Amino acid sequence: MKIIPKLIFNVKTLLFFALMSVQLIFAQDPIQVSGTITGSDGLPAAFVSIIQKGTTNGVSADDSGNYTITVPSNATLEVSGMGYATQEVAVAGKSVINITVQAESSQLEEVVIVGYGSQKKADLTSAISVVDAKQIQKRQATTVAESLQGQATGVTVRGGGQPGSEAKIEIRGLKNLQSANPLYVIDGNISTANRDFNPNDIESIQILKDAAAAAIYGSRAANGVIIITTKKGKGGPLKIEASSKMSITNVPTYDLVSRDEFIAITNMAYDNAGAPRQNFNMDVNTDWQKEVFRTGMIQDQNISFAGGGENSSFFMSANYFGNKGTVIDTDFDRISFRVNTSGKKGILTVGENLALSNSVANETGGPEAMRGNPFIDAIRMFPTIPVYDSRNPGGFGYGEQGVANTFAANPVAIANLIDQKVENFRIRGNVWAELKPWDFLKYRFNFGYEASFDNYKYLRNRGSWTLNQPVDPAITEQNRGRWESKLVEHTLTFSKEFGKHSVTALAGTTYQDFKFGQISGNKRNLLINPTTGQYFDVLDQGDNPVVRGYRSESALLSYLGRLEYNYDNRYLLNAVLRRDGSSKFSDANKWSTFPSVSAGWRISNESFFKVPQINDLKLRVSYGELGSGNIGDYEYRAFINTMGAAVFGNNQDLQNAAIQVRLANERLRWETLKQTNVGFDLAMLNNKLTVNADYFVARTEDVLFGFPILLVTGNDGGNPISNAATVENKGFEVNVGWNDQIGEDFHWNANVNLTTLNNKLVKLGNGQNESFSGNTVTREGQPVGMWFVLQTDGIFQNQAEIDAHVNSQGAVIQPQAVPGDIRYKDINDDGQITNEDKIVDGSPWPKFEMGFNAGFDYKGFDFSMNWIGSFGATVYNGYSSIVNVLNGDHNYAAGTQPWTPENPSTTTPRAYYGTSLTNRGDTDRFLESGSFARLKYIGVGYNFPKEWMKQIGFDSARLSVSAQNVITITKYGGLDPEFVNNNIFERGVDFGAFPNVRTYTVGVEIGF
Fold first, then answer.
1. Which residues form the signal peptide (predicted)?
2. Separation of alpha carbons 527 and 543, rounded Å
């Protein structure tokens, strides 16, 4: 009988649980939820995890941030990913949920690539700047360096608008006297990121600025290190991305007087000199700027393929970059390809990075002394000179005695008579393998290879472009060069945690050799192809052959080690030692050792530090030594000329001879940079506010440089290199950034960075205390290249002022002057104006430089802009030194009103044809403020809704519009205050530098 009640109880129990289950099923009816995960910047957040809370049911977003998951309608989703704060989202029966993830407070967990390894950003103890690759790729730029302007403290970049030109980049100022570029490391390969490198392939950029950060590269890092990591494939389906950017460019031009004004001023100059006027051709009114400058066009086309599986990945890209220049007969074209792959099998991982490129630059001008600079000749040529003149060889117009007295070159003639092309095919890549038998130990082998095949072709057609030019025959000059480098590296890395202690140790060796060979030749009197009317430009034509050849090689062997220690995420220590040996030095001085040490204290992790508004506070201090062997391959050996000959004996036989033409210096040794850095990193208010600041002192000793010596020493082969000078730089850097969100859809950021820099030449060496170059002087105790000019003091308005301009003894200082001439200061009080009256008058170095970056995104729209600025430098305006000298040899600035008795002026002297004090160029008349602020980039973009794109088969699509160099705030009177001069002693001289061009760009990006 007990069985029946028990059975009834069990049935009731089963019915109860069945009913509960039905209710639960109805309450949690499964639905499919999909959406897109994006970061606070509006861009897709790839591979973020979406998990049903309390279960193991989960998926990962794809590389476009898309996800789909099936969960109960009342479930809660947990969303998390590396670098993002975990958050919970209630489904609440919705089938489409788009989620914005926020960077977690631990952005400090971001991994930063350093030499031969990586570190968490929070653990850095040295000065390293991380640049957002996306900001670089927004710009229309030929090289990486151009895009770094304003992006990092301590990094000075100056570029120009000539197609294929490479920007000049300095990291923390002048390190030596050779104006060398920093070291580039691309995917672990020691290389360059010049005009044959595609910036669109970049995944990340780190700039190692202080000696402690760069010491792992030893003798190669004195000018700083830029580490570039290119894009890699990721797990998931094949991802195809394509982009196209088209740009219109135009160049700033001068504002010059009209033809009639030019004639009036020139006639005045000749009249004042008592010379007969020129017989101007009044039938001609040439606007030389319209003839020389044009609207340019840039196109940048990219396509990439990326994907991978669980244990492998691949990335492939192709790029075409074309730049039709704003000066006639200038252009640049580049085609490049890249393949990056990797695979893993057990404890072994292997990979390769391979890039191929071919670039061709068509450059204006040629190697002769009389070649023209279009930005100078456009103002030196008279408006009364025709572009074409059949009376002249080649059919072009130029100066003519008595009609147009000028030796300026016709830039249109040069563009047509000279054809100059530089072609370069480059192979760049490396293969690597990593063996990781235990989690704490990793061995890495890296083999890098780079080869550059250069082809230079110069063709000079028969014809002339300037007055009294010899009529030369058609000539071709050609050379072929090959540069090759092989790199072999072995490194062993140990990394392990012991309780609160974390230790990482690296040891390795690296060997790299370099080879360069070149052959060249030229021929004259080329034949003309009767079919095309063009000259045959191959070297089997013509006569008077000349053949030359050159070959050199060098090698560098290094041993390196690094120790990183972290105690409880509070106390950080980093020590590096590198020893380099170079074949560029003699056996006695071949080797040198470069140590560094840095330490950090994360105060915010101390138990006594209780400031909730501060998320992170770290103090840093470092000291390191770096080297540089930036000299030729055989500088320590004697240079012998074997081309000599002498006649000896009764038969007067011609005997071969050799002579040493350059003095040797076997005592050459490494120059050494010693740098101290103190800084701090601060993050506040949930990491919305970040501040990074550094103060550094860098001193380079035994600077390698060839100062001029007297020819009576027997030296006739160039200035011999010696360890002569000592250069010192001091500077302060600060970067302040703000990143915030308003509501769910509006995100904005702003960042400003400031850099101050003071350099001086501590010692010149070789018994010298000063060195002159052009209008500059470099003296011990002063910055390099200070202005050294005569001092003006207004304009004489009458004879009484001339008579009253006397020295302390009463002698008239400028007795030959007449009213309207410039008055000069007699500095040494000797009663006359000579070079002895020149004084140091200003510095070409800015007192501080800045960058300002800001942007926002709202739903699918985004906006960004970048300003750069440089303040406090004094520069020499070469344009003004031409157009404001009223001597009848060139054109003049618009609005020019020469001094006359009827129209007295206190700023513009009288016009005078001939040599006079008034017409001298080495005066302070042409020194101007080089300060400027420039809107370097401004752009807006729109990301089309993914729902729209999927209907036509796209994963994503973006349209952008941008402009570069459209606003410049400056008092400088030249074309561009942001000019480049590669002569370090005359860095502030602007004499026809190619200005930055205004660029207007439309871009389209799509993803499949």
1. 1-27
2. 10
Burial class (CB in 10 A: 0-12, 13-18, 19+), 579: middle
Amino acid at 635: E
Among 989, 941, 894, which residue's Cα sits nearest to residue 255? 894
Q: 41 falls in which pLDDT band (50, 70, 90)?
A: low
Copy the structure tokens of residue 787. 């202005």
**Fold adopted by 11-101:** Immunoglobulin-like (2.60.40)
Beta strand 848-858 with 927-929: parallel, antiparallel or unpaired?
Answer: unpaired
Phi, psi torsion values for 138, nearest 5 degrees: -70, -30
Host H or E run for residue 14: helix 3-27
Which 3 state secondary structure label does DSSP give 946?
helix
3-class state of residue 73 by DSSP = coil
CA 85 – CA 224 distance, rounded (Å): 34
Q: Report the pLDDT averaged over residues 622-626.
A: 95
Residue 165's pLDDT band, with cuts at 50, 70 and 90, is confident
- At 159 the three-state DSSP class reads coil
Question: What is the Cα–Cα distance from 535 to 541, expressed in whole angstroms?
Answer: 9
Looking at this protein, which amino acid is placed at residue 887?
N
List the Cα angle 126/127/130 in 5-degree steps: 120
> What gap in Å lies between CA 193 and CA 205, rounded to an integer?
12
Tokens at 165, concatenated: 């030109």
User: What is the mean predicted confidence (pLDDT) over 56-72?
Assistant: 82
Q: What is the DSSP letter of 720?
A: P
Bridge partner list, 70: 32
Structure tokens at 773: 């170059």
- What radius of gyration do the chain's Cα atoms show? 34
pLDDT category, 46, cuts 50, 70, 90? confident
Distance between CA atoms of 337 and 142, rounded to whole angstroms? 16
Q: Would you state the structure tokens that stand for residue 561, as one six-digit string? A: 């080690």
Q: Which residues lie below 8 Å from residue 718, measured CB to CB, with a gap of 6+?
A: 639, 662, 706
Residue of 178, 176, 175, 179 whose CA lies nearest to 167: 179
Q: Smallest Cα–Cα separation from 269: which of 820, 980, 798, 670? A: 820
Domain with CATH 2.60.40.1120 in the chain: 11-101
Cα distance between residue 419 and residue 406, in whole Å: 25
**For residue 81, what is the enclosing H or E element?**
strand 76-81
Question: What sign for the dihedral angle of Cα 608, 611, 617, 621?
Answer: negative
- The Cα–Cα gap between 242 and 231 comes to 14
Helix (H) or strand (E) holding 4: helix 3-27
Decide: helix, strand or coil at residue 174: coil
Cα separation, 52 vs 80, whole angstroms: 12
The predicted model scores a pTM of 0.86
Distance CA 623, CA 597 (A): 6
Give the Cα separation of 343 and 336 in Å (integer): 24
3-state SS string for 887-917: CCCCCCECCCCCCCCCCCCCCCCCCCCCCCH
For 232-286, how does the pLDDT look when each residue is reduced to its tens digit (9 = 90+)? 988 778 899 999 999 999 999 999 999 999 999 999 999 999 999 999 999 999 9
Residue type, 366: G
Residue 896 · residue 872 · CB < 8 Å: no
Q: Give me the helices (H) in 659-797, please.
A: none
Tell me if 578 sits within 8 A of 215, measured CB to CB. yes
Q: How far is Cα 144 from Cα 557, in angstroms, rounded to an integer?
A: 29
Q: How many CA atoms lie within 13 A of 799 on its CB side?
A: 1
| Average pLDDT score over residue span 447-475 | 92
Q: How far apart are CA 637 and CA 664, in angstroms?
A: 5
Single-letter amino acid code for the residue at 214: A
